[in-house]
Amino acid sequence: MQRKGRYDQFFSIHAASNTVGYERLGIVVGKRFVNKASTRNRIKRLIREIFRQSSIKSDNALDLVVKFRKAKFEDQFEDLKFSLVDLLTKVRAVN
Fold first, then answer.
1. 38: Cβ–Cβ under 8 A, 6 or more apart, which residues?
2. Cβ within 8 Å of residue 60, ≥6 positions away
3. How far apart, in Å, are the Cα atoms of 27 and each of 14, 41, 45, 64, 77?
4. Could you tell me if 93 and 62 are in contact, meaning their C-beta atoms sit under 8 angstroms apart?
5. Cβ atoms of 92 and 17 closer than 8 Å
6. pTM, entire model
7. What are the pLDDT digits (tens) for 51-86?
8. In what order do the strands lie in the sheet containing 3-7?
């Protein structure tokens, strides 16, 4: 089980290989960073959608845990999308 991780100003991604045959996703958006439940849920939906769109069929499947880590957040969803796609690409390339 090889583990790797990447992070930037918005997200921290931890990855480990799995034997299931497809990628799995875990999401953490803490109340400490985003107080409103509706905003936390919106961020989680965004993360799931980006993951779904960028999913690839591969022999080297990963278990991914995405942690939201931005303390000040003012509806920067385009920045979040760009950041997450970039990190997912980097994590998958290492594998």
1. none
2. 17, 95
3. 11, 10, 10, 8, 16
4. no
5. no
6. 0.82
7. 888 876 666 788 999 998 875 656 577 888 888 888
8. 3-7, 11-17, 62-68, 24-28
C-alpha closest to that of 72 among 4, 3, 9:
9
Give the start-end residues of each E strand in 1-95: 3-7, 11-17, 24-28, 62-68
Helix (H, G, I), strand (E, B) or coil at 53: helix
DSSP 3-state of 57: coil
Joined together, the tokens standing for residue 80 give 């979040």
